[in-house]
Amino acid sequence: MLMGKNKLKRFAENETFENLFQHNNHDINNEPFVLKGKWHTHYFKNSNPIVLELGCGRGEYTIGMAQAYPEKNFIGIDRKGARIWRGCKDGIEKNLKNVAFLRIRIEDIEHYFAANEVQEIWVTFPDPQLRKERKRLISPNFISKYRKILNPDGIIHLKTDSRELYEYVLATAPAENWQVLNNIDNIYNNVAETSILTEIQTFYEKKWLLEGKVISYISLNIKSSYHFISKL
Ligand SMILES: C[S@@+](CC[C@H](N)C(=O)[O-])C[C@H]1O[C@@H](n2cnc3c(N)ncnc32)[C@H](O)[C@@H]1O
Fold first, then answer.
1. How far is the CA of 177 from the centre of ligand 1 (A)?
2. 153 is catalytic
3. Cα 79 to middle of ligand 1, angstroms
4. Is the distance from the beta carbon of residue 53 to the nearest atom of ligand 1 less than 6 Å?
5. H or E stretch at 70
6. Ligand 1 neighbour 83 (Cβ under 6 A)
7. pLDDT tens per residue, range 22-51
8. What is the pTM of this model?
């Protein structure tokens, strides 16, 4: 299939962005990733907590949260170059030093971060993968990978339009020892007017809202310690 000119232009521009790291299967087999265990010292140059957005698409959460929380570092992750291009460009235009993007397969995430290097993970509007549980970004398969890089008191946030995925996570949590910290059935009915949950709307969120879908939110701790967020 021929690739569109626009896509090729974005791919070429991606090669020049200082806030984007791209890596593929070939690289994984041949070399360790240079920033693994070194994101704080070699990229962000501070010791602030690192927050990932998985399947970030155009990076709206990564950029919006980086502006709202300058005391944290944000890394948007996606495999699609033409989408992640938008986030990189926004980060550069807004001169955000607490932002990076990583174009990889989330399956390989352990190759890019060391134990305890990550403090929070956001999963924003993932494909619910209703036929294949192993492919769901919140499933025992993927959570076992996140456990290897997330701090013991770290938090996973899920925003979804999928009723099935929302119910699946709630039903799976007890058996997997995932502690549900917050569970909001419909964020537009239940959270304070000024909340990061409703203030940032991603490309897919806008699309689902136009279709009248309900947007839900769950936060989890996947290790045993208890952690409570009083205000979102
Ligand atoms: C439905 S889109 C949501 C994008 C964005 N979060 C939003 O809300 O607009 C899902 C995104 O996840 C990415 N994605 C899905 N599975 C992935 C994987 N295994 N590795 C990397 N990216 C993945 C896709 O490329 C896509 O951009």
1. 26
2. no
3. 7
4. no
5. none
6. yes
7. 987 777 777 889 999 999 999 999 999 999
8. 0.93
